[in-house]
Write a structure and sequence with these properties.
The chain is α+β, with helices and mostly antiparallel strands. It is built from ten helices and 14 strands.
Length: 304
C-alpha cells in the first residue's frame, strides 16, 4: 500500500478515505461513521431494521457527496409504498469554517411495520419505489437529479443501478449499519460504514480484472465496515494486497443541520393569520420541530 510521505492514518471513525488502484483503472472510497451517524439517527426512534436502512443511506450519501467534491448539497431520498416510505439524507460540502456534514430522516408507519412481525427484509420494508439523488451547487450551477427504481436487494444495489444507468461506470458498493449499546442506556447509538469501488472513466477497464476486484469487495463483512478498532488502511490491505492500492488523506465528516428559527418564522409570516390558525399552542407559541435534528423552534404567534 502506498501513501503520501507525510500521510496521517485515518481516524477511528467519522471520515471518508479515498483510494486508488491505478494499475487496475479503479478508484474507491471507504467511509466509517460513529458520532455523525449516531446523531443523524437520534431524532427518531426506529426499529432496528428501519434504522439499518437509514444508517446505510447516511453512509452512501457521504460516499457520493465527497466523491463529487461538492460545494453545495447532495440529497439522497427514497420514496416508496412500504412501511418505510421515506428516507432523506443531506450531505453538505465544506463551507468556510463549516466542515462537510450529514443529516438524515426516515419515516416509518409503525402499524404497517408491526404487521410484518419483525421479519421484513428490505423489499418488504421499503416496498416499491424510487431512489433519487439531487445535486444542488451552492453558488450558481444547475441542479441535477437522477432517479432509479429501488432494488429489492437494498440501498447499495439501488445505487449500483444508478451508476450503471446515469454514468455507465461499473460500480460495486457495500454498506452496513449496526447498533452500539451502552450500559445504562435504553436506545442504542448507530454506526454506519460503506465502501465503493468504481472503474475510472479516463481509461478502459478489463472485464476480468473488474470481476476479480468486485468479488473481493463482496467478501467485506458488515462488522469490518463499522468496527472503529479496525484501521481503515488495514481493511484496504486485506482486500487489495495483491494490487498497488494507494490511499489519500482522510476527509473528516460531521453532523450538520441547517434548520433556523428565523427562516421558519419568515416562512410562517408569508401565510395569513387565518392560514396559521390552530398552529399555536395554548400559550400562543408556535413550536416547529426539525425532523432532522429534533430541535424545537419556538416562535411567538403574535410576533408574526
Amino acid at each position: 500500500m502506498r501513501n503520501q510521505p507525510d500521510y496521517t492514518p485515518a481516524p477511528a471513525a467519522d471520515f471518508v478515505l479515498p483510494f486508488d488502484l491505478p494499475n487496475a483503472g479503479c478508484r474507491g472510497r471507504l467511509v466509517r461513521l460513529d458520532r455523525a451517524s449516531a446523531r443523524a439517527l437520534s431524532a427518531h426512534a426506529l426499529p432496528e431494521a428501519a434504522a439499518r436502512v437509514a444508517g446505510e443511506s447516511v453512509a452512501l450519501a457521504a460516499i457520493l457527496g465527497t466523491a463529487l467534491k461538492l460545494d453545495g448539497r447532495l440529497t439522497l431520498q427514497t420514496k416508496s409504498d412500504g412501511p418505510l416510505d421515506l428516507v432523506t439524507v443531506d450531505y453538505f460540502g465544506a463551507e468556510g469554517d463549516l466542515p462537510a456534514g450529514l443529516r438524515g430522516f426516515a419515516r416509518l408507519d409503525g402499524a404497517r411495520f408491526a404487521a410484518l412481525n419483525g421479519t421484513g427484509d428490505f423489499a418488504q420494508l421499503a416496498g416499491k419505489g424510487a431512489l433519487a439523488i439531487t445535486i444542488e451547487p451552492r453558488l450558481g450551477g444547475q441542479t441535477y437529479q437522477g432517479i432509479v427504481e429501488l432494488s429489492a436487494h437494498g440501498i447499495a444495489a439501488s445505487a449500483e443501478t444508478y451508476f450503471a444507468q446515469s454514468e455507465q461506470l461499473p460500480t460495486a458498493i457495500r454498506l452496513a449499519a449496526a447498533p452500539v449499546f451502552t450500559p445504562g442506556t435504553e436506545a442504542p447509538d448507530w454506526r454506519a460504514g460503506g465502501i465503493m469501488l468504481q472503474a475510472t472513466p479516463e481509461r478502459a477497464h478489463d472485464d476480468d480484472e473488474w470481476e476479480r476486484l468486485s468479488l473481493f469487495l463482496k467478501t467485506v463483512e458488515d462488522v469490518e465496515l463499522v468496527d472503529t478498532a479496525l484501521q481503515a488502511e488495514t481493511l484496504l490491505w486485506r482486500l487489495f494486497h495483491e494490487d498497488d492500492v494507494r490511499v489519500q488523506p482522510a476527509e473528516p465528516l460531521h453532523f450538520r443541520c441547517h434548520c433556523d428559527t428565523d427562516r421558519i418564522a419568515s416562512v410562517l409570516a408569508a401565510y395569513g393569520p387565518e392560514e396559521r390558525e390552530g398552529l399555536a399552542d395554548e400559550d400562543g407559541v408556535i413550536r416547529a420541530r426539525c425532523e432532522f435534528c429534533g430541535t424545537v423552534h419556538a416562535i411567538a404567534a403574535a410576533a408574526l
